[in-house]
Automatic annotation (TrEMBL):
Catalytic activity annotation: L-arginyl-[protein] + NAD(+) = N(omega)-(ADP-D-ribosyl)-L-arginyl-[protein] + nicotinamide + H(+)
Classification via InterPro entries: ART (IPR000768)
Region (Disordered): 260-287
Protein source organism: Rotaria magnacalcarata
Alphabetic keyword roster: Glycosyltransferase, NAD, NADP, Nucleotidyltransferase, Transferase
Name of this protein: NAD(P)(+)--arginine ADP-ribosyltransferase
A single MF term (Gene Ontology): nucleotidyltransferase activity
UniProt key word Glycosyltransferase: yes
Ranges annotated as biased composition (Polar residues): 264-280
Family to which the UniProt record says this protein belongs: Belongs to the Arg-specific ADP-ribosyltransferase family.
The protein's Enzyme Commission number: 2.4.2.31
SUPFAM superfamilies attached to this UniProt entry: ADP-ribosylation
Length: 532
């Protein structure tokens, strides 16, 4: 691996004057480069340029970097390899080292992103091997959903107007900690600067693999599609721009191992049944769940292998509707094992369409032979649905499995809490609180979830329906209920929620209210209410 006189180690953060003058070692990637503002009109060219990496084989890190003309590259690779001996998240040492190499304070991340932003493809072709290894590693990590921050010491407000939509074709480094980005080592507290507040659903947390492991780095993948929600200017020169990651209106990029094709070509591609499947990424590396079912014979192993081949074929279909059709056909098999259902859910996660995701997951929920593990992995897949209406409908279908709901209540509540819509949350909790298998120990967690409903009327309504079912002699339940009721701002709604808890259920509607008297017959009364 040679050296290039045009690429020097010192040329790492030339666009970041704030970072240059600090003695403290900082992560320059958190400061956005002006070059990150791509021209959306060239999205088709960019997609075609980047998607070429799919055609290269999966290599070791050293092989993947062969041909990159970067000074001291051998040293950087060795450092990354040594840093990555403690394996995590099912990644290989090469995959972990690929992430670490990107995070090192070297020219590598900058040169890769510059190549990603060029539409001609020639600049990127030498990076295809490393890009594939890096993306394979990142796609093995769980998606990060939440608010992240990114900044730049310039005014970008004119390029990010309300309702504008942008495609970021390079990797985007963000942090989940606002304090880090606004510290003196980064943007500071004065001067012209832009702070991006971004709601994301498909980031990747790389802190455990990073040279800067204390900075809560979240990496946005190439092809991230965002919409400008709002823009605000403060008197001290700070511009705050609120962005929200969106499902793109047209196909951009798929995960590694998938040969990207335009939607109109998907049918032809799907019909090529004799096409050999790219087995560079072994099925075993992607298997997360051990199958405890009865399907453990040699014939079952062969069946699983054939099924995984079909799943890989489905991943290669770029059209979500056609991909969903294939998955729905696979789900007609009544004898799918836990691993097979996990494979279906993994394929669902490669879709963009919230509707198609929900439709397939609902089919899983309606399976008569659904197991506890299949329930768990499928409910976790609901988090990837970006539309709250589709998410609520899908989750409510799974709630019909009452015993599994109680068994995996944390996963259910996590899916419910990821919704923004107050009405959809109310609908989900209304169904959840009717579960016949709920016990006293379950209610505090449920009440904490209800507390996060933003609309006071919706929150009060759910609490009023739940109150008659609660074991009011349980101190933890009482405390959780009162905290949920106290989070209501509306006096009227708070009063209704409070009275529902302290009143005899049989007196609802009466002008006379008394504090509920706890006695030995309470459990009998509770059972009667649940049987109605």
């Amino acid at each position: 691996m040679g050296c290039s006189s045009s690429v020097k180690d010192s040329a790492v953060i030339s666009y970041s004057p704030h970072a240059h003058h600090q003695a403290v070692r900082v992560n320059p990637r958190l400061l956005m480069s002006p070059g990150d503002n791509n021209d959306n009109r060239r999205s088709q060219e960019m997609r075609e340029s980047i998607s070429g990496y799919h055609e290269v084989p999966l290599l070791t890190l050293k092989q993947a970097c062969h041909g990159l003309n970067i000074q001291n590259l051998d040293m950087y690779i060795k450092k990354a390899w040594n840093y990555s001996k403690n394996l995590r998240h099912g990644l290989t040492q090469d995959e972990q080292a690929a992430i670490n190499l990107y995070t090192q304070q070297t020219p590598i991340y900058r040169l890769l992103n510059e190549a990603l932003r060029k539409a001609d493809g020639r600049s990127l072709s030498s990076w295809y091997g490393y890009l594939k290894l890096l993306l394979v590693a990142l796609y093995k990590l769980p998606p990060y959903r939440g608010t992240v921050w990114r900044g730049v010491p310039h005014d970008l407000s004119t390029k990010y107007r309300k309702d504008d939509e942008h495609v970021w074709w390079s990797f985007g480094s963000c942090t989940s900690s606002l304090d880090i980005l606004t510290s003196p080592n980064f943007l500071g507290a004065s001067g012209v600067r832009t702070l991006f507040n971004i709601e994301v659903f498909d980031g990747r947390s790389v802190s455990k693999f990073s040279e800067f492991n204390a900075e809560d780095e979240i990496l946005l993948l190439p092809g991230t599609y965002v919409r400008v929600v709002s823009e605000m200017k403060q008197s001290d020169g700070l511009h705050i721009i609120h962005l929200k990651q969106m499902e793109p209106p047209y196909f951009l990029l798929g995960p590694p191992g998938k040969v990207d094709r335009m939607p109109q070509q998907a049918s032809q591609h799907h019909n090529r049944q004799n096409r050999s499947i790219d087995n560079e990424i072994s099925t075993e590396e992607y298997e997360t769940y051990e199958d405890d079912s009865k399907y453990q014979s040699n014939s079952t192993v062969e069946s699983l292998s054939a099924f995984n081949t079909q799943i890989q074929l489905a991943k290669n279909i770029s059209s979500d509707s056609e991909k969903a059709t294939v998955l729905k056909h696979l789900l007609t098999n009544k004898k799918l094992s836990d691993q097979m259902i996990a494979g279906v859910v993994e394929c669902v996660e490669t879709m963009y369409s919230a509707k198609e995701k929900g439709d397939v997951l609902q089919l899983i929920a309606k399976r008569s032979g659904l197991s506890a593990k299949q329930f768990q992995v499928s409910v976790k897949g609901i988090n990837g649905i970006s539309n709250d209406g589709s998410k609520a409908t899908t989750l409510k279908t799974f709630l019909l499995h009452e015993k599994f709901t109680v068994q995996h209540l944390d996963a259910v509540l996590s899916a419910a809490e990821s919704m923004y819509s107050s009405g959809d949350k109310q609908s989900v909790f209304n169904d959840l609180i009717c579960n016949r298998y709920l016990e006293a120990r379950h209610f505090p967690s449920i009440l904490n979830g209800i507390k996060e409903i933003s609309n006071d009327s919706h929150k009060s309504s759910v609490l009023c329906k739940l109150a008659p079912k609660l074991p009011k002699n349980d101190a933890n339940v009482r405390q959780a209920y009162l905290m949920a009721a106290d989070s209501i701002y509306s006096s009227k709604d708070k009063a209704e929620a409070t009275m529902a808890f302290v009143s005899d259920p049989e007196w609802t509607g009466s002008t006379k209210h008394q504090e509920y008297e706890f006695d030995d017959d309470y459990s009998t009364t509770q059972s009667m209410h649940l049987e109605k």
